[in-house]
Design brief:
Blueprint: H1 6-11, E1 18-22, E2 27-29, E3 37-50, E4 57-62, E5 68-71, E6 84-97, H2 98-103, H3 105-111, E7 116-120, E8 123-125
Length: 127
């Protein structure tokens, strides 16, 4: 399992926050669906798939050494996803439900940490 940055360690104290390993090929978010929360990747990589057929494009997002990646952005929880996000290489991740983000200011602050690289549904965002 990957190392855990301090903001993520704080998140793990909440009852509804889930940490787990997901295998390559598992879909985390389907195109056209609204995210049910955010994922914090601690290790591994995912593919952002946009379009279909000849217009299909893939972008792989990996976790930097000792870092973590937040996806999608908490501000995107009410938006239908324009991409499908699929596990490329086994990931160690933390899932934070959207209802918890909306109801707890401490959760929102932890997710706003500069220690987390942000990957929005439309592309990377500065930390």
């Amino acid at each position: 399992m990957g190392s855990v940055p301090d903001p993520v360690r704080r998140l793990l104290g909440w009852r509804d926050v889930i940490r787990g390993i997901r295998p390559a090929g598992q879909v985390l978010l389907y195109r056209g669906h609204r995210p049910g929360g955010v994922f914090v990747l601690l290790s591994g990589s995912v593919l952002f798939e946009r379009g279909a057929g000849e217009l299909k494009s893939l972008r792989e997002v990996g976790v930097p050494e000792g870092g973590a990646v937040l996806l999608p952005l908490p501000t995107e929880l009410d938006v239908e996803s324009p991409v499908q996000i699929t596990v490329a290489t086994e990931v160690d991740l933390v899932f934070v439900p959207g209802t918890l983000i909306e109801s707890d200011e401490q959760i929102a602050r932890a997710l706003d940490s500069r220690e987390l690289r942000r990957e929005g549904l439309r592309g990377p965002r500065a930390g």
